[in-house]
Specification:
With 278 residues, this protein is mainly alpha-helical. The chain is 76% helix and 0% strand.
């Protein structure tokens, strides 16, 4: 077998594996979205072919008993605010770790601790979050949930931003300092434009994690402040599970993250692969 044939076979195998993984991820999502267009009877009977209906989306969005649009707004408020806080704190923390004259062991211990904290399941911290929030009067408030999500996602944001800040050429920073730039000016006009892809990648991941977080949101919120994951779980009622309405709400919950991914795809890929060759 010629080298060209071997290369084509290898390429075909790689593509087959990638297509297999893509289907493994896409099929459950497609099934969930399709379930939102089915009737409850059709779904439970497992009909392969069905006539699409829009009743479930209408019930989720416009029913007098549904607060899904309010939950959507709540998730956007919590996700956007916690993402902005994470980006600001993580960028400044990464700058401090790699540019200030810390002893070498301090950044290593700090990053190790953030990694350990990130490995703790959020559900294990839910009761602690509730106790602290109730003690200071932040239970059932956006502030309490925003602070909780910021804390949960901050370790990941610090790890990502530390990689991007570390790879900023020090020569550019030294040249800016020689020209009389202060630290805020240096960060704004030199560092931030360079790490913009990293900021985009970190922002997307942080927002998605905040948007999908369930355990802490369930513990800290009530009807007025509940987020989308909490709202979806409420379709599992005491005597009935509204599968099709749950599927419709799940399909609608995909839209913000999907929109962000489509808009910032180029920056995300560049940000996640930055420094890989190095």
């Amino acid at each position: 077998m010629s080298s060209v044939a071997v290369q084509r076979l290898r390429s075909a195998l790689v593509h087959a594996v990638l297509i297999g993984f893509a289907l493994l991820i896409a099929v459950p999502v497609i099934w969930t979205v399709a379930a939102g267009f089915r009737t409850q009877i059709s779904l439970l009977m497992g009909d392969l072919f069905f006539t699409p209906v829009f009743f479930n989306f209408g019930e989720v969005l416009f029913s007098k008993t549904s607060d899904f649009l309010v939950n959507y707004r709540n998730s956007l408020i919590v996700g956007i605010t916690s993402t902005v806080l994470c980006l600001v704190v993580a960028t400044l923390a990464a700058w401090s770790l790699h540019r200030m004259r810390w002893p070498r062991w301090i950044p290593n211990i700090f990053l190790a601790w953030t990694l350990i904290f990130h490995m703790i399941p959020p559900v294990a911290l839910a009761s602690a979050w509730y106790t602290m929030a109730r003690t200071v009067g932040l239970d059932n408030t956006f502030t309490g949930l925003i602070l909780a999500h910021t804390t949960l996602n901050l370790p990941m944001a610090i790890w990502l931003m530390s990689v991007f800040v570390r790879d900023v050429p020090k020569e550019l920073e030294e040249a800016a300092l020689l020209d009389g730039a202060s630290t805020p000016v240096l960060l704004r006009h030199v560092v931030l434009p360079i790490i913009a892809p990293g900021l985009a990648a970190t922002a997307i991941l942080t927002f998605v994690f905040s948007w999908n977080e369930f355990a802490v949101a369930l513990t800290l919120t009530m009807k007025q402040t509940a987020t989308v994951p909490v709202a979806i779980a409420k379709f599992a009622q005491d005597f009935e599970i509204l599968y099709t309405q749950m599927a419709a709400s799940a399909a609608l919950s995909i839209l913000p993250a999907l929109l962000l991914l489509l808009i910032a795809q180029r920056y995300i890929v560049k940000g996640l692969t930055q420094g890989a060759v190095k």
